[in-house]
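Lines hold sequence, tokenised fold; shown next:
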Amino acid sequence: MVCKDKNDPFIQDKPIWFVTLKTGKRIYQDDGRPGEEVSSAWLRLKEYCDRTGEEIETIGLKFRSHIVENFLPRNCSQFYFCKSIVGNMEDTKEFYIVGHRSGNPNVFFRYWFAVPELELVKSEQTNRSALFEEAIIINGKRKV
């Protein structure tokens, strides 16, 4: 099940992604929600889109009152999300990596946001083969 309630107490005071679907519905990240068989909200969103035929229009990020939107083009054919932790002996930093497919089917643009600040720290192009395949949502790919 996906979270459709922006006021859900479970997601308050957490950095989250939110997705606007082409139908205007919004879905909110609720990783680790008790009672869900699949902990990752992104994987549940992928299954939801595959099952219902819903398609992603755009992705945003939110932490408390800070909202980051419009960093991706609208209506991309493929979207990407994963979490990353980068560290050394003195410091560890968490990131949300959000991306989309470019015009080239083998190239994705990725944007690295520091969490919880949601500050863009890096943008890059990468080959699709370097991505986790399960983290890619393809619009229009409906399972029957």
